[in-house]
Predict the 3D structure of the following.
Amino acid sequence: MAAPPSAVTTAFLLDFAAAWNRHDIEALMRFMTDDCVFHAVAGPDLHGRSFSGRAAVREGFALAWQTFPDAAWRDPEAFVCGDRGVLESTFTGTKADGTRVEARMVDVFTFRDGRIAVKNAYRKDRPPLPPR
């Protein structure tokens, strides 16, 4: 990825989504600021589980693939308005025990200096699907 633009575009967010689907942690981290924050879809706190700073966010992102080795974010749609943006998709994944998830989700972003400063993830709370 070249130097970030001063203003984030929908193409930037769709490239970020594509990196998730490739399970490419190096590419994902290039989209993030040095002091980035990731609020995961689940966890004990109001914002789920929060990861702050590059090392922690990297760990949080990697947990998605550890939990769901076949994780995919399908049919992404994005919009950007100033320093905020949204990426909507259908999340699919299978846990090691065969439990499958398929649910719509959104990521709400805050941008700074052409990168993602905050990624706040939300997913529909849908019952697990039967194993294949």
